[in-house]
Amino acid sequence: MITRYTCGTPVETYAVTADVPEGGALQHFSLDSREPFTFSCRLGADDLIFGLGETMRGINKRGFRYLSFNYDDPYHKDEMPSMYGSHNFFVVDGDRTFGAFFDTPARVAFDMDSAGDGTVTVSCEAPGLCLYLIDGTDAYNVVKQFLGIIGPSFLPPLWAFGYGQSRWGYKSDKEIRRVADKHRALGIPLDYLCMDIDYMDRYIDFTVNGHRFPAMTQYVEDMKTKGLHLVPIVDAGIKIEPGNPVYDEGIQKGYFCTNREGENFQAEVWPGMTHFPDFLRAEVREWFGEQYKFYTDLGLDGFWNDMNEPAIFSTEYRAKTAKPDAERGDPVQPERHIADFKDFFHRLEDGTRVSNYEVHNIYGGLMTRASGEGLDRLLDRRYLLFSRSSYIGAHRYGGIWTGDNASTWHMLRQNVYHMPSLNMCGFLFSGADTGGFGGNAGRELLLRWLAVSVFTPLMRNHSALGTRRQECYRYQNPEDFKAVISLRYRLLPYLYSEFMKAALRQDMFILPMAFGFLGDETARRIEDQLLVGESIMIAPVLEKGAMGRKVYLPEPMTEVRWDGEEFRCTGADAGTREITVPLNEVVFYIRKDCLVPVAKTTAASTAELDLSDVELLGTGTAYRQYLDDGYTKDCSLERCTVLQKDL
Ligand code: GLC
After folding, report:
1. pTM over 0.90
2. How many secondary structure helices (H) and strands (E) does the chain include?
3. How much is the pLDDT for 327?
4. Which of 147, 241, 489, 634 has the fewest CB atoms within 10 Å around its CB?
5. Ligand 1: distance of its center to the CA of 318 in Å?
């Protein structure tokens, strides 16, 4: 059961699409809807807290503090309170199981029993918000009800589930072509290549650098004939440059955010000084979405939205007023940029002016909405779209990636924690920079990371300028990388089907063990094993130097060992077991009485993969497979057919 409580005058966030009944007096919880708004509740000794989407630390959020305030900080330490997205939904699992969603574009602080005395306190400086309280039979049931009111996930095309290679620093069409050719020559499957800011003319959105990419339309077409899609990055800021048609039109129509004095706000990002489109207005979103025609006319059908928290390097205002760091002490992020966010303004549909600080957390998600709605008008097929910044609701328009992580074992583990937490908040199509963005990935880390990414919808290897080159073929024995990535392609009949089914029925695709094995106290607390769809459990190796790991099986399962050539299936009893996993192998489990359809052969790209020619692994008798052409917009569960296992 879901009830809405409206406090003050909430600003529209677009997160909830369903009608939810308004509640009367709030029971069981303490709520103070004056300024600051606070909500508090008491936890039982064994209660766990799930949710909060893109936040650091484990799957159980209890014991720490978090902050919803979208922020660009590449140093993902455990202590960092907020990341690029704000996902204000959590579930308490325990004595009294319930979910709470704090729907507000403003900054929200979550104290999840950091003092250890069993108190949860949620506070928000702005009192205007909608609070949704969800009662359910168990934590998974609560999440499913929540997913039911925020609308279905974005549906990417099949090729977006292939392997993608990306790097900040690819300078030209020739360089990207060489990367592609190398993958093809070594038989490493590949579906897309990302074009970071260097494809643009001086980092200006909706332009192409004609020297580096002299014949873009032809280039896009050539790559497509090789089964490869190109995915350009698009940043939030529009360069201040009279003569640029996008800039000129934005100025003329008053589409940019303004400063205190009402002039267009200026912020420095990659292209130099820019203005930020005021995505809070429908007219501006429509205009921004139309600009993607520049790319779709080139034949492009994949897009990567970035810097949309928005990230700000500097502002004129800050340059004038800032004191040197030493004088200011060392402010904890994101305090540093708060002055910037307070210094620029949006105009809401009703004409009210609000500072970005007051509505900060929906900005990036509304950029995704603008692009998604624009692309829906421009293309008659599905497209890839993923963004860095997000708010709940943006999952209907695009996926997300988890930003500028690093090549560390800690961040690999974080990737595992993020996936179920993001799924609980609607973001099914997500993934991390495989191998890590900052720092230098060694061979072992990249192979182990790929073995996790095989199971995440977005499987993209991305790294930063100046770091060690991270393409698989740069490492010793590229055939080992080919072996791991090939598993993704063999598993696509299952992964694609499970993703589409989960998205269409507004369910999760990657779940914590707790949700799959209700009543199993060990499973409830396990954080380094996950469920992927209805049949697969994964237990990835996440430690440097480890030859394998300990795995907990709540029920008898089929252990599947993939060695790059074939699947070796053996029965595995319930309980704890030690497994050995060589670097070029992947072990996963198929749940009791379940099946996993796998493609009979791997392929260079999804264009060459036959998702209907499958073998069925596991001990089940039937599997319901979702299948379509991979790009139709007309997706429905009616496209499922039942595959029977010949016994
Ligand atoms: C940001 C993005 C990163 C990208 C870089 C250059 O840091 O998060 O993925 O490579 O900008 O565009």
Report:
1. yes
2. 16, 40
3. 45
4. 634
5. 23
